Amino acid sequence: MNSRSSFLLFLLFQALLLAAASTTAYPSVVDTGPTDCSLSDGDLTPIRREVYDNGRIIDISHRFTTDMPAWESDQGLGQFLWLPKSMKNGSLANNSEMKLPAHTGTHVDAPGHVFDHYFDAGFDVDTLDLEVLNGPGLLVDVPRDKNITAEVMKSLNIPKGVRRVLFRTLNTDRGLMWKKEFDTSYVGFMKDGAKWLVENTDIKLVGIDYLSVAAFKDLIPSHLEFLRGRETILVEGLKLDGVQPGLYSIHCLPLRLLGAEGSPIRCILIK
Ligand SMILES: *[C@@H]1O[C@H](CO)[C@@H](O)[C@H](O)[C@H]1NC(C)=O
Ligand SMILES: *[C@@H]1O[C@H](CO)[C@@H](O)[C@H](O)[C@H]1NC(C)=O
Ligand SMILES: *[C@@H]1O[C@H](CO)[C@@H](O)[C@H](O)[C@H]1NC(C)=O
């Protein structure tokens, strides 16, 4: 059986699974509601959503906040937004400015992140393939007691033909993306896990639920395995809380930042 037909079989299997589960409407995806809004006037309270259209569209990007975790920082992201032109002091409109490390929050890595010659050659986020960043893919849970090694990758039995996988780990259970302090004990890929994925699967989009796909211990070696071939796209800092594992249509769009090896990215899942 070729990989395309095995993937079709797999899709069929997933569709049956999803049909069986369709009565439970993701009760754990909680709409945080308007609680963090500063306006209190009833009619002027914006709605902040995690899901749209009764749960059919799931936002898996984190909201940018001053308290979100930032790489190797105890203080979180800190101020990233300013209002140099304000209606309060006479401007015709409010115009904010922002300053963000390119690898903040939910973001994507381009090959230039860990290969200087790719950086110099221009393999920036503007060159990433939108076809890879958009299409059918799986959300899978990985074992909670290990980092993602070759052994773990083998045990997941991800069928050939699957090109996009979001890996949910202990990071989600620990709520690490909701904690201000950067935590080096997050779960990620070990070098052998990254190498195994690249050599033995068709996965080109790798998503994970903390700021790096690579375990801190294997930070650079894992990134090198993933990005050497310039075919794998890494999406980091995903918000996978309360989403059921299974097959989704994944949609991720980075900014077209010329010369940047990383970019904030908006990612959604559509059932
Ligand atoms: C207007 O107010 C903002 C703060 O709200 C300040 O950053 C900015 O410099 C002010 N602009 C002028 C022209 O006073
Ligand atoms: C304009 O900026 C002020 C802060 O100076 C803010 O309170 C107000 O909500 C803003 N107005 C709009 C329409 O966004
Ligand atoms: C994963 O690796 C990190 C070091 O990068 C370590 O601190 C952590 O305990 C490991 N997690 C698990 C679940 O083994």
CATH topology of the largest domain: Glucose Oxidase, domain 1
So what's the overall shape?
Answer: globular
Overall number of structural domains = 2
Write out the CATH superfamily name of the largest domain. Putative cyclase
Largest sheet: 7 strands, mixed, barrel
| N/C terminus separation | 28 Å
Protein structure class? alpha+beta
What is the second-level CATH architecture of the largest domain?
3-Layer(bba) Sandwich
- The chain-level mean pLDDT equals 89
Broad CATH class of the largest domain: Alpha Beta
Number of strands: 11
Q: Compute the number of helices.
A: 7
- Main sheet: strand order: 5-9-8-7-6-10-11
Q: Give unreliable regions as ranges.
A: 8-37
Output the helix-strand order. Answer: HEEEEEHHEHEHHEHEEE
Radius of gyration: 19 Å
Strand content: 15-25%
Family: Belongs to the Cyclase 1 superfamily.
Keywords: Extracellular matrix, Secreted, Signal
Subcellular location: Secreted, Extracellular space, Extracellular matrix
GO biological process, one term: L-tryptophan catabolic process to kynurenine
